[in-house]
Design brief:
The structure is a single chain. The protein has about 45 residues and is an all-alpha fold. It has one domain (about 10-44). Helices cover about 70% and strands about 0% of the residues. The chain has two helices and no strands. The chain has helices spanning about 10-20, 25-44. The chain is elongated and about 45 Å long.
């Protein structure tokens, strides 16, 4: 996991990406983003 290196970031990034790719999709997350973030960006 690249822990002996002074900069372990690349290994941590791969771990986080792997967790994201294997996670179950939650439609509520997309609804929240659409209603609270993207909608206001389109109007600005």
């Amino acid at each position: 996991f690249n822990l002996d290196n002074p900069n372990p970031r690349p290994a941590l990034t791969l771990l986080l990406v792997g967790e994201s790719l294997t996670a179950d999709a939650d439609p509520g997350w997309w609804d929240y983003r659409r209603d609270n973030i993207w909608k206001y960006r389109d109007k600005a």
